[in-house]
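This follows on from our talk about sequence and fold. Can you supply me with one protein entry, sequence and fold together? Could you add the entry underneath, on a fresh line?
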Amino acid sequence: MGCKPLPVKLVLFTATATAQQGVALRWETASEENNASFEVERSAEGKAFRSIRSVPGRGNVQSRSTYSVVDEAPLPGTSYYRLRQIDFDGTSTYSPVRSVALSRASAQHLQVYPGRLPQEWVVNCTLPAELLAASSSVKVYDALGRVQQVPCPADATQVGRWTMDTHALPVGIYIVRLTTSQGTFSQRISK
């Protein structure tokens, strides 16, 4: 019984922050055998990975091949990346994990704006869905820092979106605070 060669000889896999707050992913293979594709996978904590991009493989080649993609919407803070190489028969192997840390201040992840109905406000979070766990919550505080009882159900059709009913709030300045696994984001509104 002979040894079966590895289907892909990965010689390089890098993940680098770009000037536009993206992540450039680059990898090279020395050769490929029955290589159907690569799945670029991302994780917030380095354990549970989710595919963000599929890249076709080159099938059978005995020469060097270079691949590159850019994650234009990386997670705030640290993102972990790996490649899942998939053969034509469906078997797969994984690359080593790479991490990239981005500044959290690079983007505003919370938007609060008037809704379609009077006294309605929409809370929209631009964080990727994998960071908006069921534990994410929206609270409204008055100018003295007291929590206000404001109905704010999550939108069942869009992850990262809530609708606030402010009928019961008197005129004033309020802070809308969204708490997620990646931190707390706040925006001031006036009613």
Notes: The first strand starts at residue 8 and ends at 17. The radius of gyration is 22 Å. The chain has two domains: 9-101, 110-190. The chain has a mean pLDDT of 85.
